Structures are given as structure tokens and as C-alpha cells.
């Protein structure tokens, strides 16, 4: 890459700018200092207002950003990039894995530079011509081997940090509740978050932030190693497809009203009503309900709102966990589950 000879004046956003400003001035770069703003109580047209309108290039120091705060900044930055072609240079400490992983899945185009990089390295990238293709360039940092990119995860994390309910977070992201549950379910699978009936947006923020910050091998385990055999790769692909099918099924259940629970020997049937798509049944083969009978025996007598599936997940031990809006759970152990449309 060729670099321009005349210094450019970047916008700099940093909570501790003095050291960086002094270091860049040695190379003839005098940054324009800007500050993050107090975010709106809720996003307006997808914008949180935490990031001021900035000219390109933007030098953004992410060293002191909390995960939810970083998610709001990245959400605003992605919109500014789409509307105004802003090119960001993001400074991230090597140890701050959570923010690196959020950047990796954000859908941004830009340069991610180690906050420990020499001032000369940062200066070269500030003065470089803006000729980047789609995607991210990582400088003195290894691109995190994260899960499949999902452009909804970052804005969803930002929304969850301010929303009072899951439905409100979904509305702010212009997503259906079913899509939100699908994003969360796939994120749980890929980040290794254990099954739990989280209902509070704040609990989701904590769970996602902690998992993204963890240096554990969970995410790496999802990726095929270069030396694995073709047979091993096919087996892993099969497992991934199975997980994805489970995620689609679980997301399909969210928002449905359970009309009736029927047990016939080793088969458990749940008759469901989807407000948009009509009647379905979930048929569980070689199944047993693990929840105490007294808890679900008169299930059909509950109010309709208390029979809405708020969260669904499938565990590695073949358990199907359904959580309802009133806080109740139904756990079924089943060898196989199939969702079928009911006629009439």
C-alpha cells in the first residue's frame, strides 16, 4: 500500500487523548479532538447518538469502552459509514477480546490497530490513502476466529443494554421476537453459553459480554483445524448443520402459544398456535417430561399470555427447555423433535 506524503488531520475520539496526541504531533499530525456523546434513551432510526458526526478518517480509541457502549458506538459508526463513507481506524488493546470480537462481527470496513502499536505505525495508517476494500485490516493484532458474522448481534447487544424487555429490544432493532431469539440462540451455541432461561435484557448483556471476553477455546472449537481429515471435517459439518437445524426449530417455537400438552406413551405432543402462521404441533419422540406433573397438569387452564413461549433451547443431553412469560419452565427429554402444521 502506498502512503500519501502530505499529513492528514484525523478526528480523534479517546478518553485519554494526551499521550496519543503528543505522539502523533512528532509526525506532523494534529488530530481534531472529539468526544463521545450521552446516548439517547432509545435509538432513533437505528442511531444511538453516542458518536458525533465525524469526517474521515476517524481515529477511535476503544481502550476504555464497556461492551454495551462499544456496541452502541459500532452501531452508529456502521450507519455513518454507510451514509457518509467514514473510514475508521480503531485502536484496541490486544487483551480486550470482547471489543475485538464485536468489531469483527460488526460488518464495518476499516483498520483495527493494536493500541500498543508504535506511533509511527498509527501515523502511517492515518496518512494512508483510503482505498480499502470491504472488510477489516488487522494491524499487529490477530483477527479473532469468531462465529459466523451476524450483522444483528452488535445492534442487538446495544439495544439490550437499554431495553426494559426483549420485545422492546426487538422493536428498536426492527426485528421480530423470533429473529431476536434466533440470533441469541445461535450466539449461545457458538460462544458456548450454557442453556438458561434468561428473560432480562440486562442478564443477556452480562452473558454475552462475559462470553465474548473469555479467552477460552469455545469459539476456536467450532472452526476446523488445518490438519483435520476430510472425514473429521464432514462429521463436524454434520454437527454444525444439526445445531443450525435445532436453532431454526427453537426460534420457530418462540412467540407461539401452547394450547395443549398431550402425552401418548413415549410421545409428547404440544399443540401450538402461531399468531401469524396458524396451528402447529411439536411432536417429541421417545420423550419424557422432566418437569413435575403438578406444574403442567392443568397447563391449558392458564391465561393465554402465560402460555406464550418466551425462550426455547435444545441441550446436548437431548433436553428441550421451554420458558414462558410468567417465569415457568417445561423441560422435555426427547430423542427427536419435529414441528408439523395442523390442517383446518
Description:
The chain is of the alpha/beta class and 344 residues long. Among the domains are: 11-139, 3-Layer(aba) Sandwich (Rossmann fold); 255-341, no CATH class. It has eleven helices and twelve strands. Residues 1-6 and 217-244 have low confidence and may be disordered. Helix content is 34%, strand content 22%.
Query: What is the helix content?
Result: 25-40%
Largest sheet: 6 strands, parallel
The CATH architecture of the domain at 11-139 would be 3-Layer(aba) Sandwich
Count of helical stretches: 11
SSE-based structural type: alpha/beta
Query: Which of globular, elongated, flat, extended, rod-shaped describes the shape?
Result: elongated
Spatial strand arrangement across the major sheet: 2-1-3-4-5-6
Uncertain segments are 1-6, 217-244
Listing every helix as H and every strand as E from the N terminus to the C terminus, the arrangement reads EHEEHEHEHEHHHHHHEEEHEEE
Mean pLDDT: 82
Residues in β-strands, percent:
15-25%
Look at the structure and give the CATH class of the domain at 11-139: Alpha Beta
Distance between the termini: 65 Å
The CATH topology of the domain at 11-139 comes to Rossmann fold
* Count of strand segments: 12
Give me the Rg, rounded.
24 Å
Summarize the structure in short.
This protein is α/β, with parallel strands linked by helices and 344 residues long. 34% of the residues lie in helices and 22% in strands.
